[in-house]
């Protein structure tokens, strides 16, 4: 354990690593704390969805922070920074090209599969498959004891033959993205933590890697389906992301500027409208 981590524990099985880290923070554990599990019996994703993975098939972890050094409206950058650190580390360990791993707003890690050339659009991407999901949970933002827990589940050494049938068409793993390359969890975790330490130090100093965050966004320039909390689905053109608020910027002909910002919590789900749907 480096000086970057105040506490780190590995578990064979827990209900949820997010719950473990939240309890640590409530007990007074300083940042940064890290819980890793080989298996979760009650893993969860955004909007109440479940997150399951076979033993050895995924890297499951949660990180805890006491972000007194971030204004409440910038705490979203913790999850974004974790996503970027993991994307870099996963590309290295899996032998993938730079930015082969993209971000689906707000912070899912996905891999884009390029299909055969077409007469009107050579090298059109035909599939987008989910590699990892993040779940951020906060308490006390704006108060004297703010706490943030960021959970991450990354599909690693998981063969496609074993994918759950309901998700097989929308998910992938580092093993599949790298054409069968074995994924070393120890090397992956070390690569991730090394990058995260550097990125968090920069974030503490007020520096956020806007270029990498915006450059990895998969939705920019594409039509997306936004699912409202009531289940209503709207198709809009995504224009980019806002580096101050973390919002997704979409076209809106009714707005004075022709665009508006969509923030996390305002919608339940985002998926690309013109490619295969991305699973939870």
Helix and strand arrangement:
Elements: E1 7-11, H1 17-27, E2 33-37, E3 58-65, H2 76-94, E4 101-104, E5 108-114, E6 125-139, E7 147-155, H3 174-177, H4 185-204, H5 210-215, E8 223-227, E9 233-241, E10 248-251, E11 259-262, E12 269-272
Parallel strand pairs: 1-2
Antiparallel strand pairs: 2-3, 3-7, 4-5, 5-6, 6-7, 8-9, 8-12, 9-10, 10-11
Helix pairs in contact: 2-4
Plain-language structure description:
By secondary structure, the chain is of the alpha+beta class. The protein folds into two domains: 209 residues, 2-Layer Sandwich (BirA Bifunctional Protein, domain 2), CATH 3.30.930; 50 residues. 21% of the residues lie in helices and 28% in strands. The chain is built from five helices and twelve strands. It has a seven-stranded mixed beta sheet. The protein has a five-stranded antiparallel beta sheet with strand order 11-10-9-8-12, with no helix packed on it. Helix 1 links the parallel strand 1 and strand 2. The longest helix is centred in the last third of the chain and has 20 residues.
């Amino acid at each position: 354990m480096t000086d970057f981590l105040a506490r780190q524990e590995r578990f064979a099985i827990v209900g949820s690593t997010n719950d473990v880290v939240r309890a640590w923070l409530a007990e007074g554990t300083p940042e940064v704390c890290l819980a890793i599990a080989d298996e979760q019996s009650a893993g969860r994703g955004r909007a109440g969805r479940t997150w399951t993975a076979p033993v050895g098939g995924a890297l499951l972890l949660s990180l805890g922070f006491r972000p007194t050094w971030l204004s409440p409206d910038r705490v979203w950058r913790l999850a974004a920074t974790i996503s970027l650190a993991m994307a870099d580390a996963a590309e290295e360990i899996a032998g993938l090209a730079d930015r082969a791993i993209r971000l689906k707003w707000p912070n899912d890690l996905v891999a884009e599969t390029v299909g055969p050339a077409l007469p009107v659009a050579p090298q059109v991407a035909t599939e987008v498959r989910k590699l990892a999901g993040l779940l951020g949970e906060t308490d006390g933002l704006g108060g004297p004891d703010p706490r943030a827990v960021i959970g991450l589940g990354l599909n690693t050494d998981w063969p496609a033959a074993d994918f759950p049938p309901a998700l097989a068409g929308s998910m992938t793993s580092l093993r599949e993205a790298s054409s069968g390359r074995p994924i070393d969890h120890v090397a992956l975790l070390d690569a991730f933590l090394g990058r995260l330490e550097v990125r968090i130090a920069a974030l503490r100093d007020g520096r956020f890697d806007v270029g990498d965050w915006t450059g990895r966004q998969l939705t920019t320039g594409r039509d997306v389906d936004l699912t409202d909390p009531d289940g209503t689905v709207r198709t809009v053109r995504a224009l980019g992301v806002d580096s101050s608020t973390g919002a997704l910027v979409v076209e809106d002909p009714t707005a004075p500027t022709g665009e508006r910002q969509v923030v996390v919590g305002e919608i339940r789900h985002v998926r690309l409208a013109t490619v295969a749907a991305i699973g939870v």
